[in-house]
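#lab-general

N.A. 3:47 PM
ok so I finally got the sequence cleaned up, no stray characters, all 101 residues accounted for. can someone with queue access submit it? mine expired

B.Y. 3:52 PM
send it over

N.A. 3:53 PM
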Amino acid sequence: MMVTSYYKFGDVRQNYKMVNGLQAIASLKAKLEEYEATGNTEVLVEVANFAMIEFMYPQKEGANYQPTDGTNLGKRTTVCISVNEMKDIKEGNGDRWLRYY
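B.Y. 4:20 PM
back already:
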């Protein structure tokens, strides 16, 4: 869908890096609210697009990329538990996950 947006709105770099006023995060939040209100999964594609735009051309002051490799999950924000965590707990290996919390 970002390809379609190119023809509709123009080059993403020009729109988000060079033009003052277009905001990916604010747009992402608005689209997420729209999804929560409507349940239209197409809107989630737009949420993902705006997240990718912010990743490519960050507007947030001090934005940086810090990859996670499984050793720095202390500030984990995922809600719930993964299937691998459940499997490890079931097999008696749940302790390995406790060090991340």
